[in-house]
Amino acid sequence: MGWSDTHRYEFCIHDRRYAPRDGIGRGTGGRIVEARGKPLCHALGASRSFDYLYDFGDQWQHLVVVEAVDLLPEGEVASAALLDGAGACPPEDVGGAAGYAALLAALADPGHPQHAEQLAWLGGAFDPHTFDREAAAAVVASLDRNPI
Q1: CB-based contacts of 100: which residues, under 8 Å, 6+ apart?
Q2: pLDDT per residue over 108-143, tens digit each?
Q3: What pLDDT, on the 0 to 100 scale, is given for residue 106?
Q4: How many CB atoms lie within 10 A of CB 84?
Q5: Residue 31: exposed, middle, or buried by beta-carbon count in 10 A (0-12, 13-18, 19+)?
Q6: How far is CA 22 from CA 8, 35, 75, 117, 139, in A?
Q7: Which of the two residues, 99 and 48, has the higher pLDDT score?
Q8: If we measure between CA atoms, which residue out of 18, 53, 49, 14 comes closest to residue 35?
Q9: How far apart are CA 30 and CA 58, in angstroms?
C-alpha cells in the first residue's frame, strides 16, 4: 500500500492470524502466529485469498485475492512482479476510510473550511488518482526478500 509499516497489522489465513510479536494479543480470536520469518506462500497453502488488517486504530481492512500462480520447473526460484495498479495510497494516519473520504472532500473544494489545513497536513498537493508504479514495483520486488 505504500504505508510506513509503523502500525500493527495482521494477516488472517484460514483460521490462523499472523502478526508481528508486538501485535500479538489483540484478542481477535483464532490462532495467532508470529509473522516475522514466515514466507507468505507457505502460510497461504492452497488458499487463494486472505484478509489483511493494517493499523488497528484506522482499521484498513483488505481482502487480498491471488489471481494466478505460475508454477516453475523444479529448482527455479519464483519472483514477485507488479502487473498493474491504480490510485494513490491513502496517507498514513488519515483516519481510516471515513477520514480519507473527509480528506478528499476537503481537498476537492478550495472553499472547504478544512482545505488549507489538510493541504498543510499533507505537505502539499495530493492526487488520489496518481499511481506511483516505480515505488509499488520496488515494494513488490522486495517481497522475494522479506517474508510477511
Answers
A1: 90, 91, 94
A2: 999 999 999 999 999 999 999 999 999 888 887 776
A3: 97
A4: 7
A5: exposed
A6: 8, 10, 36, 33, 23
A7: 99
A8: 18
A9: 21
User: Angle at the Cα of 44 (from 43 to 48), degrees rounded to 5?
Assistant: 170
Cβ within 8 Å of residue 28, ≥6 positions away: 10, 12, 17
Inter-residue contact 36 to 21 (CB < 8 Å): yes
In this structure, the dihedral spanned by the alpha carbons of residues 85, 20, 61 and 7, taken in order and rounded to 10 degrees, is -90
Write down the pLDDT at residue 25. Answer: 47
C-alpha–C-alpha distance, residues 148 and 129, integer Å: 28
131: cell is 499511481
Q: Would you say 39 and 51 are in contact if contact means Cβ atoms under 8 Å apart? A: no
Residue 30 and residue 20 in contact, taking contact as beta carbons nearer than 8 Å? no
pLDDT per residue over 35-75, tens digit each?
777 677 777 777 888 998 999 999 999 998 887 767 677 76
- What is the predicted pLDDT for the residue at 78? 67
Contacts of 59 (CB under 8 A, 6+ apart): 53, 96, 97
